[in-house]
Amino acid sequence: MKKSVLAGCSLLTILVIVAASLALSAASPDRLLRNSPVRATSQPQAPTLIFNRKLVSSTQSYSALGVGTVSAGFVAMDSLVTFKCPSPSCTASAEQSVQIGGSVSDNRFAICTYVDGAEMTQPYCPYLGYVSSDGSFVSGSFTQSASGITPGNHTLQTFLYTDDGGDLGIFNITYRLYTP
Q1: Summary count for the chain: helices (H), strands (E)
Q2: Rounded CA separation 48/122 (Å)
């Protein structure tokens, strides 16, 4: 009897350790990156630092009243913003904040900014969380940038991504243009 209780406790301990290990690996950052709405690398990278840049211009795009219901996938939050890069190389940044609500569970959301129709990759846009399923709103924010922008006219636009759509509330996006 004593041996069977000891064997049962040992087996239970091993099962708990294996289950905890699987749960931790399922929540790892690598798993989150692989599930990003936009491509991402699973290898950690050294941070990119941008120094000695001059702010050339900034603009703000926002909605203080809420937008309404949006469909699943990528939906434009604002209209195209045009800018002109005056030097051999420019850097654009976007600071994005959004409120989103809904009624569907397990509905992830992200904010992604595009330059000339291509997503900003410094860094790629991550999932920011889950849309609430009780009709209340949650918020998320993120900052992205793109460097090496060539001289001339360009566009910026920010998109909300959801797995299952939702109700887009207020948002605020600040775009900035820098030169060396």
Answers
A1: 2, 11
A2: 8
